Amino acid sequence: MSLELAYALITPHSLLKSRTGGILSRLIARTGLDFVAARMFAPSAALAEAYAAQLPSPDDPQEPAIQQLFQDYVRRHLSPEPATGRRKRVMMLVFQGENAVRKLREVVGFFAPHRYAGQTIRDTYGDLVMDDSGRVRYFEPAVLIPVSQEQAKNHLKLWARFSDSDGGLLTDVIEYPPGETPERTLVLLKPDNFRFPTGRPGNVIDFFSRTGLFIIAIKVHRMSVAQAVEFYGPVREVLRTKLKGVVGARARAALEKELGFALPASTEAALGDLLGPLYGENQFENIVRFMSGRAPSECAPELWDQPGTEKCIALVYEGANAVAKIRDVLGPTDPSKAPPGSIRREFGSNVMVNAAHASDSPENAQREMRIVKPEENQFRQLVEHAYGPIS
Questions:
Q1: Does 144 lie in the same domain as 36?
Q2: Is the same domain home to 99 and 20?
Q3: What's the CA dihedral at 97, 101, 104, 105 to 10 degrees?
Q4: pLDDT in tens, 213-270
Q5: What whole-number distance in Å separates Cα of residue 301 and Cα of residue 33?
Q6: 8 Å CB contact between 354 and 200
Q7: Which of 330, 8, 40 is nearest to 188 (CA)?
Q8: What is the spatial distance between Cα 321 and Cα 180, in angstroms, rounded to a whole number?
Q9: Which of 215, 175, 209, 219 has its CA nearest to residue 318?
């Protein structure tokens, strides 16, 4: 069976209601598919209309009246606001695997009048409310998906065609109160969340939703060795110097045990000066290996700029005091010192395997975003690799 691409488009309402994490958890954990790409979009009227026109399909198990609801929904809720022209956010998630479209359909679910259950994403996050006469009072699909492999191909090519003009790092999509100045901050969901398909990535995003901030960029990122070295460069010298005391004490204790006699205190300082930088450099190598899959000393120069083997999700959050709010929910670097209810307390293992990274200042957020490039259009690259050039 050949691998298929399929997508799930999280609607503006689901994003606004912070349902993103719960939806992503189910999509990853229950489909078992490989999560290969993601991109934020602020659809233009042209994209929304073209997408709506492609929605009806003879392969859709939902009756024509339901398909019409989807068309009407896209035209109304994905198009820019009529009065202001402000565009709305949607999140495109792309999955790959055998029978990808069918597996997504099973997890997302479908709509039928008077069908009530709790198994699927639409059962939980979507709504189709009808009155006694059968007239639709409220409709919210939560997620939009293709119903066939051919439709997935056509839809992905359509969104790829608009992916530069309508997608990436979104600007001017959130209206703030007068006098409120938003910040942007970068979050990386680290590789320990992707060892095998689980709901952890979505669960971590769900924790971040408590901040009330807005996601304005998302990217599935495989950090290169060069990127990891630059990204974590500021901690390199800190590791080489701050660990001298710890390393010196451990080395002195080990030598005293091995040699059978006590060493003077001055030896401990000397051992720290000698071994501390070496130990710090080894720790830095471990960080780069953890984030990219390769340590600098083990990587051939021609591979330094190649995408690594480890997967992350890069997210940009926007809002008032974004840096402080995100770091408060994340918790301290050491999970054992993180308070209950923080991400690192819930999902972290140690100071390196600690679920997520977040920028510690607006200035560092800008520096880190320049390295990770959350606006980079890997979505289009993936679609063109699968289906050929997009005209």
A1: yes
A2: yes
A3: -160
A4: 999 999 999 999 999 999 999 998 888 888 788 888 888 899 989 999 999 989 988 9
A5: 33
A6: no
A7: 330
A8: 10
A9: 215
Average pLDDT over residues 295-300: 92
- Give the active site residue among 77, 114, 221, 357: 357
Q: Hey, what amino acid is at 184?
A: R
Three-state secondary structure along the chain? CCEEEEEEEECHHHHHCCCHHHHHHHHHHHHCCEEEEEEEECCCHHHHHHHHHCCCCCCCCCCHHHHHHHHHHHHHHCCCCCCCCCCCCEEEEEEEEECHHHHHHHHHCCCCCCCCCCCCHHHHHCEEEECCCCCEEEEECCEECCCCHHHHHHHHHHHHHCHHHHECCCCCCCCCCCCCCCEEEEEEECHHHHCCCCCHHHHHHHHHHHHCCEEEEEEEECCCHHHHHHHCHHHHHHHHHHCHHHHHHHHHHHHHHHHCCCCCHHHHHHHHHHHHHHHHHHHHHHHHHHHHCCCHHHCCHHHCCCCCCCCEEEEEEEECCHHHHHHHHHCCCCHHHCCCCCHHHHHCCCCCCCCEEECCCHHHHHHHHHHHCCCCCHHHHHHHHHHCCCC
Residue 1 pLDDT greater than 70, yes or no: no
Q: Of 303, 334, 361, at which residue does a domain stop?
A: 303
b/e sequence 98-108, b meaning 16+ C-beta within 10 Å: ebbbebbbebb
Given a cut of 90, whether residue 331 has pLDDT beyond it is: yes
88 neighbors 170 (Cβ within 8 angstroms):
no
Residues 149 and 270 placed together within one structural domain of the fold: no
Mean pLDDT confidence for 55-74: 91
13 as an active site residue: the answer is: no
CA distances from 5 to 153, 203, 216, 379 (A): 8, 24, 24, 12
Domain that holds residue 277: 228-303
Q: How high is the mean pLDDT of the chain?
A: 93
Q: Which of 270, 303, 336 is the last residue of a domain?
A: 303
CA distances from 355 to 28, 313, 368, 370 (A): 17, 11, 17, 22
* Dist CA 317 CA 183 (whole Å): 8
Closest CA to 184 of 90, 316, 314, 315: 316
